[in-house]
Amino acid sequence: MGKRRAGRELLRSLSKKQKKHLREFGEEHPFYDKVFACCFMGCYCCCCLPLCFPFQSEDSDKSSKESDSETEVEQVSGYHKLLATLKTLPESESEEDESESEEAEESEAEMDGEGSQETGEAEEGEEDKNDVAEEEEGTTDTAEQMLSQEQADGTDTSCNPRHGVIEEFTDVKHESEFSLETNFMEEESGDCNADRRESNPFKQHMDQELEEKEIEKMSTLPKTSSQSQWPRLGQLVFSSTLEKHKTLKADREVDVKQLHLHKPLESTWPKVNKQFLSAVGKPTDSSFTPLQRELFCVMNSYRDLFYPERNALTNGEEIRHAYCLHALNHVLKANAQVLSNNARRRDRKPGTDTDEHRDQGLTRPKVLMIVPFRECALRIVHIFISLLEVNDKKKIDVSNKKRFKGEFGSDPEEKPPNLKRPEDYEAVFAGNIDDHFRIGVAILQRSMRLYAPFYSSDIIIASPLGIRTVIGAEGEKKRDFDFLSSIEILIIDQADIYLMQNWEHVLHLMKHINLLPLDSHGVDFSRVRMLNLNNWSKYYRQTLLFSALQDPQINSVFNKHCFNYVGQVAVRNVPLTGSISHVVVQLPHVFRRLEADSVTSVIDGRFQFFIDKVLPEYRDAIMSHTLVYVPSYFDYVRLRNYFKKEDLNFTHICEYTKKAAVCRARRFFLKGEKQFLLFTERFHFYKRYTIKGIRNLIFYELPTYSHFYSEICNMLKATDNGVDATWTCTVLYSKYDAQKLAAVVGIDRTAQMLQSKKNVHLFVTGEN
Predict the structure, then answer these.
(1) 343 or 502, which is more confident
(2) Taking the mean position of all CA atoms in its chain, how far away is CA 721?
(3) Total domains in the fold of the chain
(4) How far apart are CA 722 and CA 27, in angstroms?
(5) In what order do the strands lie in the sheet with 626-630?
(6) Rounded to an integer, what is the distance from CA 207 to the centroid of its chain?
(7) Which residues contact 76 (CB under 8 A, 6 or more apart)?
(8) What is the pLDDT of residues 400-418, one digit of tens each?
(9) Mean pLDDT of the 563-569 span
(10) What is the distance between the alpha carbons of residues 456 and 442, in angstroms, rounded to a whole number?
(11) Which InterPro entries match (predicted)?
(12) How would DSSP label each residue in 142-197?
């Protein structure tokens, strides 16, 4: 009975969101401090490696153990004990785990007792001390009690693996109320004549009839580009295959009435956006900030847009409000056109030609919004609601709103107390940071339906992982991507975060969007636009891509997967000063260039350059306390295996390392018991721990985020002995790292370094 009672107390300490994430993946989210364990359920978790990984053999798994051949058993987190219905641990193992956890906590307290940040980390792991293995009978009873308690609380348990196939909640009660085919336009709900204006951007874009020779031209010929300088966005590059589309000019002043917004948005937008206008000072117009005005000018022209200067601290919410306005305006106009044509078809005379009423796609979803976390989806829906509510008296009807807040909201108690991190970290990981979700939103006049089935939705908000699990992989029996066939606006926000999750999910989505559906899904083909029937949807789709940085993988998606006939607009500002100027310690930075013939050969070339020319200089015992920063997990595994093979004195930390192993690695490195520390970028992205004891830095590759360079360099000041005379920093780069190099050292130094064909040793300090 005692063990059962202890199990029940443990279950009560977990939130519903934590239990849900556990049921879906069998692990805790990477944000939390416990485990980055891979999922062995056949899912596509963003924390797992992209499908097949050539280095993940049995030998590499064995080499992932501590280099000092420690035989301690890794601690079992409280979350894994909930899986004891599938596997129970021997009592002897649990005792070893408990003692190891206590040892890890003591060592962490010893290392981090002086700083408040490290104190917060120790507090996060205190609950690991109480891990106790349960017997099979007691654990089964506890799990059943948990399920019954959740059902009593109204929690949806349909996604529990014990119930078989994962099922998610969808609202089927309001199907007729939100059906476009059976409803008609209300005269006061919108401007019925707005869709007939010749200058309406929506009508101009969707009613444009392309010829086959133009489609062939866009498919075969390269794009022509031109540049323009805008006051706020800076350097813009316009590209298009069709010559008739000219460069867009920025509007210095914008009148809301001239934007052809749908009727309710004209009055609600200035109120919703008022919070950002007060920070601008004296704006030239009353409804947009300078950044929003220029961004919306591009959006409203239905050109593709790539904006790589999104900052979660400064302009993130401004941008979110701007693209929400554009997406909602598009949906309201499209639905108003359908409802108006419904009335015309109802009143038409028998035998009248109805070909003029082609106003739909092959499927209903029009807008797909890809965001990284549930908190982002929550904010988007709140913006939609605010934009649709004209005043306090005219509230819109939102179906399933309470359920939505419960599943997408956040519990302040879930975040560990006294956990201090940089401001940008707090902004990115605010609220509910679960990264597996998808939700359909249907909007009809004054009503909004959350959790609408995808084929009855106007807008789909999802994470890359959430959409990937629906699309599935080739060969799977249960997969569906027909709902992506008629997407007219694709919004990918915070694309840089997907580089830290799993970029393969984004590529998988781009390969399955705007394809002909395999089923008709009850569509009325007499209402389908000819562009959809001709499979030309991708040439009409507008893609809005927002990121915090310029990266070759993000650029590749914009250049190779965007086919908008109107053209593309990319912001291409070059950094004048790099993040190296934010390094506060006096540190010599040595940039060593490696030669490579192609992008594919640079991977092997970097490895060979490192082991032949860089590593031998650090093998001597005098070069102890050397941290090797590795952005790619593939490179990390390769280096780890090589260090193991060469029997080097090293330890390692990656995003999959358990907390106890992280504590040991940090303690060994600080005390000098391990000469090298292999350190992955994704671990730093999710944790931002301060690594003490660094004397020598090696950047195996330039960081993805430029400010990570200064953060890692500034960790040297955390060393108490003050032996700054021996501090070194070595950076490996090639000609294919031009963008990352410019973000670190600035454009002027980058040009000088790339012009030289020899290995360049550039000595600079943070104050230069």
Answers:
(1) 502
(2) 40
(3) 2
(4) 40
(5) 589-593, 728-733, 696-699, 626-630, 676-680, 650-653
(6) 33
(7) 89, 93, 94, 97, 131, 133
(8) 999 999 999 987 776 666 6
(9) 94
(10) 7
(11) P-loop_NTPase, UTP25, UTP25_C, UTP25_NTPase-like
(12) HHHHHHHHHHHHT---TT-GGGSS-------TTTTTT-SSS----TTTS-TTGGG-
pLDDT in tens, 339-351: 888 888 777 766 6
Residues 443 and 297 both lie in one domain: yes
Residues counted in the chain: 768
Sign of CA dihedral 286, 395, 334, 382: positive
Give the chain's end-to-end CA distance (angstroms, integer).
67
Helical pair 91-112 and 659-671, crossing angle rounded to 10 deg: 40
Q: Alpha-carbon distance 114 to 212, whole Å? A: 70
User: Tokens 């035989």 map to which residue?
Assistant: 71
Determine the 3-state secondary structure of 589 from DSSP. strand
Q: For residues 139 and 85, is the Cβ–Cβ distance under 8 A?
A: yes
- Half-sphere CA count of 155, side-chain side, radius 13 A: 18
Q: How many CB atoms lie under 10 A from the CB of residue 478? A: 7
Q: What's the token pair of residue 438?
A: 């998808």
Q: Is 43 helix (H, G, I), strand (E, B) or coil?
A: coil
Query: What range does the domain containing 747 cover?
Result: 579-765
**DSSP string across 75-118:** PPPHHHHGGGGT----HHHHHHHHHHHHHHHHHHHHHHTT-HHH
249 and 296 housed in the same domain = yes
pLDDT over 70 (residue 609): yes
Listed in sequence order, the residues at least 6 apart from 110 whose beta carbon sits closer than 8 Å to its beta carbon are 667
Cα distance between residue 501 and residue 504, in whole Å: 9
Cβ pair 592, 614 in contact under 8 A: yes
pLDDT in tens, 251-306: 766 667 778 898 889 889 999 999 898 776 655 556 899 999 999 999 999 999 99
Domain boundary among 552, 571, 590: 571
290: nearest Cα among 329, 330, 322: 322
Average pLDDT (52-79) is 41
Domain's final residue, options 530, 549, 571: 571
Query: What does the pLDDT read at residue 245?
Result: 61
Q: Which helix (H) or strand (E) covers residue 543, if one does?
A: strand 542-546
The token pair at 139 is 């654990």
Q: Is the dihedral of CA 184, 189, 194, 200 positive or negative?
A: negative
Q: Examine residue 302 and state whether it is found in any structural domain, yes or no.
A: yes
Sheet of 447-450: strands edge to edge?
224-230, 234-240, 568-571, 304-307, 542-546, 489-492, 367-370, 459-462, 438-444, 447-450, 397-399
Of 166-180, 307-321, 569-583, 712-726, the range with the highest mean pLDDT is: 307-321
Q: What would you report as the CA-atom Rg of the chain, rounded to the nearest whole angstrom? A: 28
**554 Cβ contact partners less than 8 Å away, ≥ 6 residues apart:** 306, 308, 495, 496, 499, 545, 547
CA distance 156 to 32: 23
What is the distance between the alpha carbons of residues 615 and 612, in angstroms, rounded to a whole number?
A: 7
On whether residue 84 sits in a domain, the answer given is no
Token couple for 487: 């997407």
Residue given tokens 């590795």 in the structure block: 630
**Which DSSP state fits 58?**
H
Do the domain assignments include residue 30?
Answer: no
272 and 308 in a single domain? The answer is yes
CB-based contacts of 755: which residues, under 8 Å, 6+ apart?
none
Residue 188 lies in a domain: no
